Amino acid sequence: MRRSTAVSACRPGALALLVSLASLTSLGATSSGCASWQRPGEPLGARLDPAVGARYVHTGSGRAIYTEVRGDDTSRPPVLLVHGFASNHDVWDPLEPAIRAHRRTINVDLPGFGWSSRTEGDYSPVALANDLVDVLDTLQVERADVVAHSWGSSVTLALALEHPARVRRIVLIGGWIYDEQIPPFFRWARLPLVGDALFTAFYDERPADRFPAAFEDPSIVSQELVDAIERSFNRPGTSRGALAAARGQCFRQLQARYRTVRQPALLVWGADDHVSRARFGERLAHELPDAEYVSIPRVGHFPMVEAATETRRVVTRFLDAAEAP
Fold this sequence. Notes:
The chain is an alpha/beta fold. The protein has one domain: Alpha/Beta hydrolase fold, catalytic domain (Rossmann fold, 3-Layer(aba) Sandwich). It is built from 13 helices and eight strands. It has an eight-stranded mixed sheet with strand order 1-2-4-3-5-6-7-8, sandwiched between helices. A hairpin with a 5-residue loop joins strand 1 (about 55-60) and strand 2 (about 65-70). Helix 3 crosses helix 4 (about 150-160) and helix 6 crosses helix 9. The chain is globular, with a radius of gyration of 19 Å.
């Protein structure tokens, strides 16, 4: 099967290029001050622990995807877990054991984040979906359920659209899936030079303040978790990978196809999600042909952390449902 490649709908025009040069001057940045990609052979320091089935999967795009495969039950399709922007596989710690009790789980770090490679290339949802197909192929998985959070939801929708035979059901939590959700910072980051300067200067700034802001109850965020996030920023190529992922968030072409998604979908949203507003979940529920929408009160952008018990209940119920005849 020939794979689709993304066509950027976010390329800046000539005026934007001039603005980028002027803005770069005002930032006082130079190309020599911009962060670099992970160099060939440069390690990220991952320990491939056999106890969690840790391994690297090398994809056709030349990337190395950190993958954990856990659980022994192969009677039903496994569950692929896809994290969001500036996150990694650890975000599923409150949910993964409940799924693993009845299914095999495949927990990945998307390119640019966690322990996966941070190399130059296409970071659009379609390109990353193709990487996930390579993971499934390597693991000899014909069909999987997919649970995704935030930006990972756009990658999951691309996977369901581009490779429908590989996906049985999808769960999207606080989905980041519409062009209207893109903040000004990310739009400016699309400009040549300006984006490099912005992410080099600000991407890893003040995680102790920024990360808890995504929670309705910031006190739930431990210092241990903040420290782990700060350590991840020190891995080679981190800001460049994050910039590429931000630039790849061109959703206009993808969102025009959401009405053609065939798979049953569960949409889980925090009622007080200020990152991905509930109205976007409600909109997606109307566009997807077969969707169930669940709103969890007094919860922000991370329901699987803030409301772990309720999220586990609705997700496992949906995944364990029998297929319609």
